[in-house]
Structure formats: structure tokens, C-alpha cells
Specification:
three-stranded antiparallel sheet, AB_hydrolase_3, hydrolase activity, 24% strand, alpha/beta, Rossmann fold, disordered N terminus
Amino acid sequence: MAATTLDPSFNLQINGQESTHHRVVVAEIDGLIRVYKDGHVERPQIVPSVACSLAPELGVTCRDMIIDKSTNVWARLYVPNTDRLRLIPLMVYFHGGGFCVGSASWSCYHEFLAKLASRLSCAVVSVNYRLAPENPLPAAYDDGVKALVWLTQQNFVRGNDWWTSKCDFSSIFLAGDSAGANIAYNVALRVSRTLEIKGLILIQPFFGRERRTHSEKYTAQPPRSALTLAASDTYWRLSLPSGPTVTTRGAIRRPKGRRSCGVCGHVCISEMDILRDRNLELCGNLRSKGVKVEEWVCKGLGMHFRS
């Protein structure tokens, strides 16, 4: 699997000219996001956004669909062109980006999820949720829950037979990478009493707390890794709501407490990722609640976007 990583030589450009209209920068992650004191936010197009078109030989149909017009939340749907009599499972996927950047239209996610749908013979719903800091948490969690509600309603919408007739709506999986994995976990937690989720697939899940772990303090990052400790802190500062207590912030940042999402999980961990210890802690917390968890540790890898 290839990786899209950060280019440290990238300079912020807006329409070919350096931005000079908003002088006071209050937060920045080089090459990804710049936030100004007046509230203006700039996100360079470090990864190209692409239309929902695919090569015919892939055997997957792709469509963009509106989930909520009022919040402009939408999803990119990938459905294998299968004639199999057996219904195929559904995967709801949340992209990464520290809650602040990323899109379901990014080329790396578009290509990755199209191939995933083809190889696994499953339908994939890639959710384009609202981003912080304009929409701080729990907006992304709200959008994830709304996406699931929307999905369960599609089986009853006229004109959707081209894909709903192929799908097993009793076999829904939640997945995501980095912040998207955090969203998948929290959405599963929210709907655990009302909707059956078959499983979780969490790729380098992005959780945190004030106390540093060993991997955060001492792990040497591979060149051009997509996540540094400074970037992690900035993402949390931008995405957390203003004013909550430390306890509330901790509940958002790390999965602890009596409740569990209650479904089996698959957690992908990168050996050189600063989140490694957080990910291992997540697996331990889930197992302590009786949840079956399988973990994979990818040797020599740091954080990177899917592609």
C-alpha cells in the first residue's frame, strides 16, 4: 500500500500567490492548515480532490450522495458491479486528517476505497464530515451518526435499488484511519444500543491525553511522517470544543469509561507512529471490557494517509 506523506518544502499558495490578507496566524501545521486570529482558515490542496469516476475495468460504480443539505455533509459511495446472489456487506469509512483536514474526494482515499470495495466485494460509504476548527468536536461524531441513520433509510428510498438491492443492511462495519478511526469508535459507542454494528476496523486511531506516552516522547519519526507530536497537539487544540472541563476533553480524546462499543475490533498499528502506545492502550481497554480485538503492527511505518 502506497503512502501520501507531507513534503516539508511545500509553501502555502492561494491561487498562485502567497496569502497576505490575514496577518496574525494563531495555529499552523505546515503544508496542511493555517488558522488566523480573525477566524479565517486556509487549507492548501496538498492532495488533489478528484471526481467520482473510476476505470471500468475496476468493476466498481461510484456516486456522490448528499446526507444532510443543511450541513453540507455528503458521502462517496463505492459499489462493486457484482451479479452474485449473496448480499454484500457495507463499510462506512471516515477519512483521517486530525479532524481538521482531509476529504472523501482526496485522491488517496478515492483510489484506496475503490480498490477495497473491489477486492473485498463490499459496498463502501466514505463520509465527508464537517471539519474543525470551524466545526469543533463533537460535530464529526454527530455527522457520523447522521450518516448511519441516512444509510439505514436508503433501503426504503425509491430509485436506490441499483445498489441497495446488493447490500446486506444487517452487516454494517465502521472503519477509518487516524481521526477517522476515532470517529468510527465514537460513532459505534453512540449507536451501540440502537443499531447493530458487525465490527470496527481502526487504522492508526488518533486518541490522546495530557500525559505523554513513551512512543510520543521517544519514537524517532520516519522522514516526512504525516504526524508529529507538535502537529498532534495542534490538531487537538483546533478540534476540541472551547470551554469543556478537562474530564470532558479526556472523554473525547481517549476511550475510557464503563461503556464499550461492544463489537469486535481490528486495530492496525504502525511501529514508528507516535500513536503506537495509544493504540495498544485502546486494544487493552477494549479487551478489559470483553471486546474481542485483533491487532496488527506494521514494522517500520509511521503515520501516513491511505492510498
